[in-house]
Amino acid sequence: MTAAGRALRAEWTKLRTVPSTWWLAGTAIALMVIVGAGTVSGVSTDHCPTPAGCHEDTVKLSLTGIWLGQAAAAVLGALALSSEYGTGTIRATLTAMPRRPGVLAAKAVVVAAVVALAGAAGVAISLLTARLMLPGNGFTRAAGYPPASLADGPTLRAAVGTVLVLVLVALIGLGLAAILRDTAAALTAALALLYLAPLLRTVIPDDRWVHRLDRYAPMPAGLSVQATKNLAQLAIGPWPGLGVLAAYAGAALVAGAVVLRVRDV
Amino acid sequence: MRTETPPTPTPYRSSLPPGRDGFLQLLRAELTKFRSVRRWLIGLAAAALVSVTLTMLASNSGPGNNQAPDALAGPGGGAVQDRFRFVHQPLTGDGEIVARVVSMADGSGGSGERESTVPGDEDHGIVAWAKAGVLIKDGTKQGSRYAALMVTPGHGVRLQHNYTEDLAGSDAAPKNRWLKLVRKGTGFTGYESADGSDWTKVGTVTVAGLPRTAEVGLFVASSDRYTVERSFGTLSEGVGPSKATGVFDHVTLNGAASDAWTGEPIGELSLPKVPDRPDDRPLDEQENREELPPRQEIEDLKGSDRESGGVFTVTGSGDIAPDAFVGGDNLTQGLAGSWVALMVFAALGTLFITSEYRRGMIRTTLTATPRRGRVLVAKALVIGAVSFAVALPATALGFAWAQQRMQDHGYVPPVYLEYSLAHGTGLRAVIGTSAMLALVAVLALAAGAVLRHSAGAITGVILLMLAPLILGGALPLGATQWLFRLTPVAAFSVQRSGMYYPQMERPCMPENACYPLAPAGGLGVLLLWAAALLALAVWRLRKSDV
Asked: Which domain of life is it from (chain A) (predicted)?
């Protein structure tokens, strides 16, 4: 087995044998499905004069659960590293694998894999729930609202993009944990990074600043990938928006790798 | 042979006096623990710094396109609406006006002039806040001081003055209701009666600055029909003008007045105002804007009045009320830093107990102080006091600075209210926000003591406090209101600005800076939650091993 393979295997063993990993993955799925179902239950065709003139983005609405589900992903990513600092395992880990950035990379891979699986499950169940609930709210095929299908480009983009958002948020958590080396600090920083922009934009009356927040803050930008309708009204396009979020995740990981490399543990 | 018994060794006894285990010593011990962890102190300093910085960021921009140049200022400085039909004459000095409101009806009904402008509200009658009554006003110019006694279809008899003040009388319907408004200097007393002989006092108000000669008469107004439909992900607000017709008889005017009535519309409809912020809400919400009423309709909304045999029939539109559709919530804008401070205090509160579990320190603590409940109470007091002591100056500094900057940037009356630490609302918001942050730290401490794990407690408390603010706009209105009544989020009512008035047809939504509970009540809900969770934590600490 190569060194990389051994590192991955070690990290995978650590991640899967900690109960909190599976609790958090389950919480992320549950939050996504519950909030998504609640959102879908409230949408109706009342404001849709015609199917073509309907602005209800049902795919995006059914994936609203990511607003809360991503918090669980961030915690999962942060705990994967910060708990090692809390218990001192990090010293054993770095003794066994002295190439420190490699350790972080291996952790990133296994965390991404677990979160991607959980995210895929959450997205699939959310979309399926929406598909079952929406006809009851008037979105029937007969009325001109065919159910969302992954064969549609925008729907597929929203589904894959949502999974990627969860993965990137978990990586932000991991990178912040590498920088801050403390569960509480990493979580506070990750949640602040995610949730402050949506809060700020509710009080800022100046549309230009709201537009800037929507373009460059990680959460509004990343979630623009969920849009399947009215793309022209987005502050940033779906894939560029996801790119902004990826830039935050990449920056957090690189900074984390540097801190891990230069500082004693 | 003699045996000598060796002297028995005396066991060692410390000569120090026994330590005291008073509660003050416990508090001191906990304070020492807190202040000797350097990264917590750094965390506190960072919380204060980031809080002020974030407040500055939020107040960095001007009001954008939200500044309505045609806004009308009331005597209190806030934006007001002042549009109604007035049948009046001057009255000099003290006097009184008596009138009976025979009936009130939807002013557009019967003639079938137009369809409703509000989607989903085709079957409307008269609006609940239509007003018919007697009015004493400083001339006929819009925005001037007044006192009015009126009866409304949905909210009974009201004594209102200067747009923002509202006093409720009985719940009587506008059917043969007698009203009497008495002026004495600047004091106005309203009476109501069912028969014109047996009067009940509604109240007395003072309208300072009303000149000796004022216009007195009958008025009818009918506020804009406001509908809001909120559901997950969509929000639509609609406003459309409405009209009402009031019939008066037994009109008597006592005092130095003539007997010639003049009927005229006060003010003219410009545009129906909808919050001019199409995309300031977290989810993809759409607002259904109303079409502007055509010119003819604006003329029509000026209403009419006629008198025949002492019976006055007055049709009017508009409202005499605060104007809630302009401006924004510049109070909360000056408190934006409290969100990030909340996150840090939640983390610190949790860590104050969970780090003891992680390091095993809790065993030393409980060996030194075997009365476990007191340990948690002491910790709660220390973390609460420390958080308040840091939050108060940081919030006050950020708030005062931000309000000053916003005023320089054009957040000026009448559209925006001026807040400062020197006035009640601003001071209450700053102290209340600091108290909320301190209670959040206590709540997080209790959550940490129950869960004994920092990640879950920190994330849980932060999401509990902030997720409803973000996702609240997506929930049905009723659900949001209950959320803001029952969960710890209720404490955000300390940031309620003076912009919401119950005497208006506008629902109480957090996006409107309106919270269903009063500030003290909201803080009380958070206090109850913190106390309940702390009790649970004490119970768990006593019951289970550490």
From this structure: Bacteria
How far apart are alpha carbons A71 and A107 in whole angstroms? 19
Searching chain B, which residue's CA lies closest to the CA of residue A63? B233
Contact assignment for A195 to B466 by CB distance below 8 Å: yes
pLDDT in tens, A82-127: 999 988 899 999 999 888 999 999 999 999 999 999 999 999 999 9
Confidence of residue B113 (pLDDT cuts 50, 70, 90): very low
| A106 three-state secondary structure | helix
Helix and strand numbers (H, E) in chain B are: 11, 17
For residue B118, which of B217, B238, B288 has the smallest C-alpha distance? B238
- Which of A13-17, A189-193, A230-234 has the lowest average pLDDT? A230-234
Q: Do A43 and B234 touch (CB under 8 A)?
A: yes
What domain count does chain B have? Answer: 2
- ipTM for the assembly: 0.87
Q: Does residue B192 belong to any structural domain of this protein?
A: yes
Whether residues B309 and B338 share a domain: the answer is no
Q: Single out the residue in B299, B322, B345 at which a domain terminates.
A: B322
CB of A231 within 8 Å of a chain B CB? The answer is no
Same domain, B58 and B174: no
Question: How far apart are the CA of A243 and the nearest CA of chain B, in angstroms?
Answer: 20
Tens-digit pLDDT profile for residues B346-401: 999 999 999 999 888 999 999 888 889 999 999 999 999 999 999 999 999 999 99
Q: Report the C-alpha gap between B397 and A79 in whole angstroms.
A: 35
Domain that holds residue B421: 35-63+329-543
- Which ranges of B240-371 does DSSP label H, i.e. alpha helix? 295-300, 330-333, 337-359, 361-368
Cβ atoms of B474 and A64 closer than 8 Å: yes
Calpha distance B313→B321 (Å, rounded): 23
- A49 CB near a chain B CB, below 8 Å? no
Cβ contact, residue pair A68, B347, below 8 Å? no
Q: Which domain holds residue A230?
A: 3-262
pTM confidence score: 0.80
Answer whether residue B26 is part of any domain: no
Start-to-end C-alpha separation, chain B: 60
Over range B194-215, report the average pLDDT: 91
Distance from CA of A3 to the nearest CA of B (A): 32
CB of B93 within 8 A of CB of B176? Answer: no
**Chain A residues with beta carbon closer than 8 angstroms to that of B282:** 198, 201-202
Query: Which residue, among B41, B57, B230, B232, would best test binding to A if mutated, counting the most A CBs under 10 Å from its CB?
Result: B232
Pairing mode, strands B262-266 and B225-231: unpaired
The pLDDT score that the predictor gives to residue B33 is 92
**What would the DSSP string read from start to end of B7-30?**
PPPPPP---SPPPP--HHHHHHHH
B344 and B289 share one domain: no
Q: What is the pLDDT of residues B307-336, one digit of tens each?
A: 888 899 999 988 888 876 666 677 888 898
